[in-house]
Amino acid sequence: MSKIMIETRGISKHFGSQKALDQVSLMIPKGCVYGLLGPNGAGKSTLMKILSGIMKADEGAVYFDGKPWSRADLGKTGVLIEQPPLYENLTAEENLRVRTLLLGLPKSRIGEVLQIAGLKNTGKKRSGQFSMGMKQRLGIAAALLNHPSLLILDEPTNGLDPFGIQELRELIRSLADQGITVMVSSHILSEIEQVADYVGIISEGVLGYQGGLKEGKDLEELFTEVVRKNRREMVC
């Protein structure tokens, strides 16, 4: 069995004349938190949408657990991209009940994911009354319903206060400790530095670095080096 959860080989994506991704090849080991860093508009969301089956690449291939990606792998993937898709007039439990009915999943899983996300005691409070952090955690709970091997989170700390960010950081780390591979994107270096085991840095659609931090360099220095290099290459 592969030790790599997700791999891309030469992924490219165009929107008209604009190249959003340029020959991106990444490898995400199982059971880790992989932080995808990049400036706004770098291609992070496009890459995550391809990995989650929302969008197709124009070139290249995706491998899931050592095999070519297929739509069957969606059943092993949890996704939270942009805002959580919630019914704000329903409680947390009712929101998850709707999702279990749509996906044909057992209702017994609802209590488990509410416990994992720290929302077990929200009772009859409607999700429209939740804080932004609680909404994000409910979105993650929904993404966990199908027991995913891979969880994809695109900018999950956007709009959160410091307490909400800390809670979400602890939740992400706990999921990796349970063996779930978590891919999380951000343009905030400090958040990724505190939660990730591996990082990938993307700029102008190019994956300029992936792996651990280089010896003697902090993440900000490494990030700046990659972004500047890719910008120079684009100009040239």
TrEMBL record:
Q: Please state every residue range assigned to the domain named ABC transporter.
A: 6-229
So which domain of life are we looking at?
A: Bacteria
- InterPro entries the UniProt entry points to: AAA+_ATPase (IPR003593), ABC_Gallidermin_ATP-bd (IPR022501), ABC_transporter-like_ATP-bd (IPR003439)
One molecular function GO term is:
ATP binding
What PROSITE patterns does the database record attribute to this sequence?
A: ABC_TRANSPORTER_2
Q: What keywords does the record list, in alphabetical order? A: ATP-binding, Nucleotide-binding, Transport
**Keyword hit for Manganese:** no
Q: Which family does it belong to?
A: Belongs to the ABC transporter superfamily.
Name of the protein this chain belongs to: Lantibiotic protection ABC transporter ATP-binding protein
Q: Which organism is it from?
A: Faecalicatena faecalis
The top of its lineage is: Bacteria, Bacillati, Bacillota, Clostridia, Lachnospirales
